[in-house]
Amino acid sequence: MSRTPSGDADASGRRDPEDPGDESHAGPPDVNGTALAAVVLAVGNVVFGSFLGLFLPAVPAIFALASVLLGHLALARINRTGQAGRGLALTALAVGYLWLVLITLLICGMLLFTGYGFALLGF
Fold this sequence. Notes:
The chain has 123 residues and is mostly helical. It contains 4 helices and no strands. The protein has a domain at 33-97. The termini are far apart.
């Protein structure tokens, strides 16, 4: 059986099974790596952040800020390149912002309802 350079069928009309030729079977679109990293960081913060926050209180806040930053970067890249992963980036943003709100409420509650908070506020 003779092969043609472009992968077209030979004279008998058969194709070489090892040569894909001009078949353009596209696989799934590439997922944006930044979006994947953002959602892994955000979900990891949900799973491990409250435990790590007992020992290092700034860790959940830093992870939440990092997931929000990576989520915004991923959305910008996805809009520019057309990659997949928009849902991952939006999930990372939602979880990251939710954590930031919860941390802010926790800090405000600690300042308002503890002796240290009362001393700072002058009560």
